[in-house]
Amino acid sequence: MVAASLSTPTAAAGAAPGSWIAALLANATGVASAGADALAPSRSRAAQALAQTPLPSRRVEAWRFTDLAPLTALSPTLLSPVPAAQPEVGAGSLRLNLDGHSDPLAGISLPAGLEPIGGDELNATLGQVLAATGSAELWPVLLNGATARNVLALRVRGPVATTLELVSDAGDGEGILPLRLLLVLEPEASLEVLQVHRSGGANLTSFVLEARLGEGAELRHGLLAPGAETGCLLATVAVEQATGSRYSGVSAHGGWALGRLEPRLVQREGAAHSALKALQLADGRQISDTHSQMVFEGPDGRLEQLHKAVADGQGRSVFNGAVQVPRAAQRTDAAQLSRNLLLSDRARIDTKPELEIVADDVRCAHGATVSRLEQDELFYLQSRGIAADQAARLLLRGFCEEVLQELPEAARPWQPLASLLGEQGR
Amino acid sequence: MIRPDAPVLLEIRDLTARVEDQPILKGVSLTIRAGEIHAVMGRNGSGKSTLSKVLAGHPAYTVTGGTVLYKGEDLLSLEPELRARAGLFLGFQYPVEIPGVSNLEFLRVATNARRAGKGEEELDTFAFEDLVRERLQVVQMDPAFLERSVNEGFSGGEKKRNEILQMALLDPLVAVLDETDSGLDIDALRIVAGGVNHLAGPDNATLLITHYQRLLDVITPDYVHVMAAGRILRTGGKELALELEERGYDWVDAELAALERTPAEVG
User: What is residue B245's predicted lDDT score, i.e. its pLDDT?
Assistant: First the structure.
């Protein structure tokens, strides 16, 4: 915490976290006055709420292990990233670049089945999934709402064969990059989305995705977020599912001074399928955090959740997996597994399942393991001529690949493992 | 094949070792020349598996005395990976499952490490695939196993075949095969033994560690050593294995008891 506040920029805000918010809001409002936009009313509401909400401190349960110091050390300004080099777009993908201010759809022809949502409908829809998942008042959501300048909102009809790549790169600039996304999947629609969020410096990437899945709809959602030593990521993924829908989220984040992902899912009438597979890495003095929440509001719902974490150096990994099964959610079948790899004596892993089960006819399994690299596995590789450090790397990769290989095919050119382990030049 | 003038590949002298505080090896001596096939037999707990792990350098075992020369050089001071690169191979009794690491990549990295140890060039992905497909035939293995994670979900027989495939790729000078026959049905045993016979030649040597005669019906040893309580009690030809099969291990117990009554004779 001390080290972080030493590097606080000249905005003189770092001393008191509240004034960091005040400075940010002043800066954000200044930009907003340039012209009216669709988000203006909700932005000012969020700004008011944010100004009145104390900064999450470690006395609050949801932030007990996650110190915001790396965030309040950032410049409280809005960031305009410059375009960065990217891998080529694959044949089956449509890539949309998100920079927080320009229209990502400008000059783009959307494939059949995708259309933008705008006007009154956008205003009526935006925020509904946040409300349905109890996410509207989350601090990262307020921060995003108070600063986001535009929203990418898409409706999906029928099966869409093209993978939608939503990409941002905060680069090495200072400040905050707020991104807001809305996906509405009509009944029986299906879509694959890959989000890639990168950073190379002292900035915050803040995104909020709302996704509404109609009956029988399917969303395959990948998120790859390799960070920077001084960068922060605050990500909220709110998903509302109708019966018969399938949401499959695969995420990987790591390398951020502070990286926090909050998937918040609700099955409104149950009888839907939700899958969450996640990998998070923390090395150096990084914090990697996932707070997930799954709520079943009706019977016959399913959840398959695998959360994997690697902590090395003095890194800190935090996982909190909430699953709520109220009385209405009979015959829920939920399984949650947290598997953690501790690679250093000074790293720390906090993992906590949080199951609230009221219904009596349910299957809810959960488990957590924390281990080091297996000596027998290391020796087996060494006995085949593979040096100890290379053997350790192979085992680490094996641990990570179980999740990474589930990312959409379009993730491959982004080199998920190498980017997360910092093994590729930027 | 016994040739008295063949070069000595492995020379074990008075080797003692412990795991945690438990002494297991209590003075093992054994000389292996090129071209020879040795079998070490003995009951569970006699120390024969420990011998194989100590030779390969397993970190759980501490050598407390004695020497092991490999091609005339000190083996015990080498890290496990350097022993392997120099041509020592351990076939595991319980091959380890490594989820998430593809068998093909594992085999390629291992093969290239050994090739580097022999001063040969590394094989690129394509050249390696050709090699591995050819060597698969030694153990009649389905190429589909290459795409899976190392040993993960393999049956006992598949794991042992995968061990012999590794042996075929790594081209060892001394192969130590720890209970390679355990858990194999007759067909799998024949395939695995066929692989070992195929790979045994005048320039390399094999040390079979086994509990049963049945492996020695298909791989004919030049020497059979009977181990008990951390020592080699007796050494003979292949007829010694047959004798064990007939008489069981009871006489070993008697001989051991006699030895322990007169400890001065030991060592």
Answer: 84
